[in-house]
Amino acid sequence: MQPSSPFTTLLATDLVAFGAQYRDIATQVQVRHNMYARVIEALTFAGVSWPHCHHEDRGDGTFIVTPPEAHPAVFLDPMLNHLSAAVGRHNRCVGPPGRMRLRVAVHHGPVHYDGYGVTGPDTLLLFRLLEAPRFKRKVHASGSELAAIVSDTLYTNAFDRNTLINPAAYRATRLTHKETRRVRAWLWFPPQ
């Protein structure tokens, strides 16, 4: 195994109800294409170079490791806000099968590369946040087109830098999923 990377921002997305019966394979392909286009657009808007990111496809989502020089604050604002606007704009232009809802998890920490990709405790934490049942329930209940769960590490690093991020947009929560127990994280939903 190669040594761990410096601290970097990790991002994971998941398309809610991607495998729903009302979506045929052609629609799934189109929804995936549109998800990638919106994510790349939002990262670019935030000043993060997609070609410099490590990214892995997850079938109904993505896993992205950004360059270490990308400051964690840009993932809270402007990236999440821009992604929300891009998904909303997309959904207004397509019929129900082509609409997307996204769950997003964002974390900041080192990753480890091996011959198969990326691994390590921070990678696991990112996916435990994304897949936490409590987060999924909150997203389902909200009906929101986009929702994010932000690790306490990223949230703290972002706000320690005297940014213009609105802390009122985030709600503290505790999540448990598999071996991750009562970890503190922050929920974000787009402003109404």
Describe, in plain words, how this protein is organized in 3D:
This protein is α+β, with helices and mostly antiparallel strands and 192 residues long. It has one domain (8-188): Alpha-Beta Plaits (2-Layer Sandwich), CATH 3.30.70.1230. Helix content is 36%, strand content 28%. The protein is built from five helices and nine strands. The chain has helices spanning 25-45, 73-92, 121-131, 133-142, 152-159, and strands at residues 8-15, 54-57, 61-65, 102-109, 112-114, 117-119, 146-151, 170-177, 180-188. Strands 2-3-1-4-7-9-8 form a seven-stranded mixed sheet, sandwiched between helices. Strands 5-6 form a two-stranded antiparallel sheet. Strand 8 and strand 9 (180-188) form a beta hairpin. Helix 1 (25-45) crosses helix 2 (73-92). The longest helix is centred in the first third of the chain and has 21 residues, at 25-45. The model has no long low-confidence stretch (mean pLDDT 90). It comes from Actinomadura rubrisoli. InterPro entries: Nucleotide_cyclase (IPR029787). This is Guanylate cyclase domain-containing protein.
Topology overview:
Elements: E1 8-15, H1 25-45, E2 54-57, E3 61-65, H2 73-92, E4 102-109, E5 112-114, E6 117-119, H3 121-131, H4 133-142, E7 146-151, H5 152-159, E8 170-177, E9 180-188
Parallel strand pairs: 4-7
Antiparallel strand pairs: 1-3, 1-4, 2-3, 5-6, 7-9, 8-9
Helix pairs in contact: 1-2
